[in-house]
Write a structure and sequence with these properties.
By secondary structure, this protein is mainly alpha-helical. It is built from five helices and two strands; from the N terminus they run ααααββα. It has a two-stranded antiparallel sheet. The longest helix is centred in the C-terminal third of the chain and has 17 residues.
């Protein structure tokens, strides 16, 4: 077994995966992602749901957009935010399921 070749991630991909985990490793961003998992929302709506200032929400959304976890669309004067794609929904579901399982949540 010790002589088996182990494949490693490409260094660029490895760095991008690290940046992905850094982007979600924040309680405020987790709250925002969880809210957006349920509904597409404006900054004002997110702020009301997660109990953060609009400026803090905007800052977190910028980081989440850079990590391509969140995207937005304009509807008139409103900017509506949503999770970027189904992968983000799946990752979030898996993380919640895993934590519930390992910590014996009901």
């Amino acid at each position: 077994m010790a002589n088996e070749q182990i494949e490693m991630l490409d260094e660029l991909l490895e760095e991008d995966v690290v940046n992905f985990f850094k982007a979600i490793a924040n309680k405020g961003r987790i709250k925002i992602l969880y809210a957006l998992k349920q509904h597409s929302l404006t900054v004002t709506e997110i702020s009301e749901h997660v109990g953060m200032s609009q400026s803090a929400v905007s800052h977190h959304l910028k980081d989440l957009k850079m990590a391509r976890l969140v995207s937005n669309k304009k509807e008139g004067r409103k900017v509506i935010y949503h999770l970027d794609d189904e992968h983000v929904h799946d990752l979030f579901d898996t993380a919640i399921e895993h934590v519930k399982e390992i910590y014996n949540y009901e």
